[in-house]
Amino acid sequence: MTGLYELLAREELLLLFAVILLGLMLGRLEYRGLRLGTAGVLFAGLGLSAWLHPLGELVLAPQIKELGLLLFVYCVGLTSGPGFFAAWRSRGLGMNLACAAALAWGALLACVAGWLFGLNRAQIAGLFCGALTNTPALGAVSSRLSGTALEAIPALAYSLTYPAGVLGALLLGRGFARRRRDELAGEVARQAASRVAIESRSVEVTNPRVLGHSIGELRVRDEFGVVVSRLRRGEVDSVPNKYTVLHAGDVITVVGTLSSIQSAIEFFGRVSSERLELRRDRVDMRRVLVSKRELVGLTLGELDLARRFNAQVTRLRRADLDLIPSDELRLELGDRLRVVAPVERLGELSSFLGDSEREIDVDYVALAVGLCVGLLLARVPIPLFGTSVTLGTAGGPLVAALIFGRLGRTGKLMWLLPYEANLSLREIGLLLFLAGVGVNAGGKLAGLMNREGLAIIAIGACVTVTTGALALVLMRRWGGAGVVAALGGASGLQTQPATLAAAFELSQRSEETYVAYALVYPLAMIGKILIAQLLAVLA
């Protein structure tokens, strides 16, 4: 064992990837439907560091953890940006009120329990930071107590409660998902249905109310959520546009969800036995990849493909999601458009959109600029009640990424990352962060297991579980959140990547998890930083 310790202590990169490997293997183990998932890396680091602690302390450079956290939160922010601002308008106030109430309860419980067990104010502040897994709050407390006899105490209490804070939040989230499994399954099923249930039908126009009116005048997309992609009049096939006037006997192809198609059939006339998509001599369909950077951030309406190429976009595939196109839908790099156009225009249309896998890459200049802006925001002092706080490495990049994700692009800078690149960077960042936290905290735990330490752990666990449970209940009542959004919001309360990763897995990789996380994260981060400092001074 001595040889193993000396090897890992000397070879820092070997230690890093050994912890990641062990953690991924641990995360795949399943017991009664429960798995740690990516969070297994955290517990592998804790376990290995505590096991070898009698021989000496294992340490990973803090820059590894910081780099991982930076990549993770920045990529999450880019993904969440477009949905964040829309979600704030619909349920932001209720979700954040729930978050504030849960934090107030956690602070009150930490104070009362700490007094009963004879803990000092530094220990109470430290256990609050650890129970709610917030390193920036610990940094603020340490700065507040700098130069005093209590300066080192918050970090020790934090080290004791942090692992239980992560584990407690993970178990709470899984227990909540298990208790609400039928509702969660329904939400996941509805999301799955929205990804696959886009179809097409041929319809004969017979309704007198639509004859003599143009497709644009009838507001087909707005009223029914369908796209009219083809038209046959007599023996002539064509691609209709919003100016096309419908006549009796026209056969059109409508594309949309099953329910919207049924409504459109009732409006236009009746189902036709003809299948216009089988006639490909004059009009054909092609899937085209959006790979030209200059098109990213533009709306389909701004592209105006109907005027340029006499083409109709019938659906857009982004990541694993099929979307019915609208004029307001903004393009992202890697989107796949299904377009219907005259055969002779398809090649020209493909060249216009790019349709090249080689052109899809990361705008590294924009990525570097975005990360720099995020790190600068992380260090901007925010004055609050006679003191100042910062967003920290977790908060600054997230705020910057939310804004850049909403913008999409600025001039030649393309803020959005291709989906696969975003996902890869996000996962790599999370692995680095969890490995760094686990290894550096494990050794401290081994030396602090005494009666006072056990009391701190017990209080911290109560703060973690009751605060998270209260947040889940209030987010559903005040914020109108479903199970997926409640899981994401509770992760945002924790400001903890491990719980977010677990919630993402529980929701079967629903992006709504990230949106809800980002929705409450800023308030949770600032609130915990402020409350922790107040506890250190007043408790």
UniProtKB/TrEMBL annotation:
**Presence of the UniProt keyword Ribosomal protein in the record:** no
Q: Which residues form the RCK C-terminal domain?
A: 186-270, 273-355
Keywords for this entry?
A: Cell membrane, Membrane, Transmembrane, Transmembrane helix, Transport
One Pfam family recorded for the sequence = TrkA_C
| Domain of life of the source | Bacteria
Whether Chaperone counts among this entry's keywords is: no
- Family per UniProt? Belongs to the AAE transporter (TC 2.A.81) family.
Q: Where are the transmembrane segments?
A: 12-29, 36-55, 67-88, 95-117, 152-172, 364-382, 388-407, 428-447, 453-474, 481-504, 516-538
The record describes its membrane topology as:
Multi-pass membrane protein
Spell out the PANTHER family in the cross-references.
K(+)_H(+) ANTIPORTER SUBUNIT KHTT, TRANSPORT PROTEIN YIDE-RELATED
**UniProt protein name:** TrkA C-terminal domain-containing protein
Per its UniProt record, what InterPro entries does this chain match?
AAE_transporter, RCK_C, RCK_C_sf, YidE_YbjL
Where in the cell?
Answer: Cell membrane
